[in-house]
Amino acid sequence: MDPAQAPGVYEGAANVIASVMLLIEFGMLRQALARDQIRLYAAQSALISVLAIVIAADRNLPDLYALAALSAALKVVAVPLVMRRLLGRSVPDDGDEAPGVAGSQTLSPATAVLAGIVLAAIGFFCFGALKIRGPAAPALALALAAAMVLVAFGLMIVRRDVASQAIGFFSLENAISLAALVVAAGLPLILETAFLFDLLVAVVVFGMLIRVQHARSESLSTSDLTRLRG
Amino acid sequence: MSAALPIPLIQVLQVLTVAVGAPGVTGVIAKVEARLQGRRGPRVPQPYYDLAKLFRKEALAPEGASWFFLAAPVIAVAAYLTIPLLIPVLTSYPLPLGYMGDILGGGFLLSLASFVVATAALETGDPYAQLGSSRTKTFSAIGEPVVLFVVFTVALLTGTDLPYALAATVRSSAGQIIRPAHLLASAALFMVILAETGRIPVETHNGTNEFGMIEEARAFEHSGPYFALLKWGSELKQLILFTILADVFLAPWGLASTQKVGAVLLAIVALLAKACAVGCVVAVIDNSFAKLRLFKITEFVSAAFLIAVLGVFTLYLGGG
Fold first, then answer.
1. What is the mean pLDDT of chain A?
2. Which residues of A touch B314 (CB under 8 A)?
3. B174 interaction partners in chain A (CB closer than 8 Å)
4. CA-based angle B176:B178:B180, to the nearest 5?
5. Looking at the 3D structure of chain B, how many domains does it have?
6. DSSP label of B57
7. Per residue, what are the HEC states of B184-229?
């Protein structure tokens, strides 16, 4: 068979960043401690800012520099800080050792990763078949974003504690920002900013949820919610 | 320094470089590791002294062990010494015997060596040696899919699975280096190498605690020259795997492109330097992580598998 053609350096770099983001998503899937999950989320958000800068430099879109700075300030600094605060208030310092959170994993990590690979494959090949080509970033990055969305859903389903589910939701937003960067890099800055503020709303809502859940059942596990009567 | 070496001599030099250099690389890694831990550490040529000492000693075999027990170390070393003929060790152009086998051929030879050593360990009746061989087989079986997917990636990248072809592809342009498929396959291979050489997330390579031993335990009953061969064999395996990682995947530069004496000598130095550089990275990993519990090794391998599978996925959509 013919050897696969090499993409250009720019395209390769964008694809590598997107692949590392997907790998971090898998890292969150297998990471047991909520604190480390938050750290991984911050790393993933930092990468999407880097990707925005790479696209901005290559495609000459100065708007994206501002977006990268704004999204870094919000997602790398603010959201992890708020999440850590929330967890600090409701969970003792050793994170997962808290009652109800330690046994929150329904699948073993290795099985969860294998299930995640299947999900990623579905996202990958479905989007690969669509053959959408954005003006800014390569089609592969879009497929990677789709895989990330599905793995993030998987993360939210597999985990039983509210904190991990919140992180899964936020990383879902990262995946969608990645897809947005790929398909519509030239989106007006004001719209992109509005999306970022949507995330802030989500953080507030999840913060409320975590606190209500903790106040009601003294645990962050949602497995208490399966029974209809208390 | 401009005399040209005959091709067969270069081919022999490939084997000799690996055979003679392997204990030295092990010595360098042990030294770096000791320095990182604030110890003075053994001298760098210490592995050579160890081998020389063991080769002079008497050899004993347990009662009831057959001829295979003594033949296994010899077969293993012979298999390890055949692999340098198949991979680019010193030259960027393929040598005549280089097309004797592809990456899978090299993999078969590695498995053959590991198989005969494990079988010899089973002959002894020593519970630890048997435990070691059973564990080795189990963990190499779950590591196998990772290697296969790395080979698939190589095959999709180059259209063949010859190590020389991949090295040439990587050298050809910057786009080939930065593409995700190449980086992911290299990362997965590195993780497999950590597992295969008995390094820290999987096994403590210089431990004395039998319960955590995987590969080290297999040689318990061998002594004298046979034990020396087993030790030398694992050093050879380590250098071979490092060579594949450095000369085929990560840094296929510094290889001789002509038959000139100077170029070949430079290639020998470059190879050993690259192997020591990989070894330093391994030593740093050794010192920064704890050993995984035995049943957590599947998680380590599943991470490597994930990376290798993603490498293949990215290629299928093109542009990977």
1. 81
2. 15, 19, 140, 144
3. 9
4. 95
5. 1
6. S
7. HHHHHHHHHHHHHCCCCCCCCCCCCCHHHCCCHHHHCCCCHHHHHH
Q: What is the residue extent of each domain of chain A?
A: 9-225
Chain A 63-122, residues with CB within 8 Å of chain B CB atoms: 109-110, 113-114, 116-117, 120-121
pTM: 0.89
Q: Helix B67-82 crosses helix B224-243 at what angle (to 10 degrees)?
A: 30
Which of B312, B314, B316 is the mutation pick for testing A, counting most A CBs within 10 A? B314
Contacts of B161 (CB under 8 A, 6+ apart): B102, B103, B104, B151, B154, B155
Percent helix, percent strand, percent coil in chain B, to nearest 5: 75, 0, 25
Tens digits of residue pLDDT in B199-209: 877 877 766 66
Rounded-to-integer distance, Cα B158 and Cα A1, Å? 9
Give the mean pLDDT of B4-32. Answer: 93
Can you name the residues that pair with B91 across neighbouring β-strands?
B256
Residue B1 inside a domain? The answer is: no
Give the residue numbers spanning the domain of B44.
Answer: 7-316
ipTM for this model: 0.82
Nearest CA among A194, A213, A217 for reference residue A205: A213
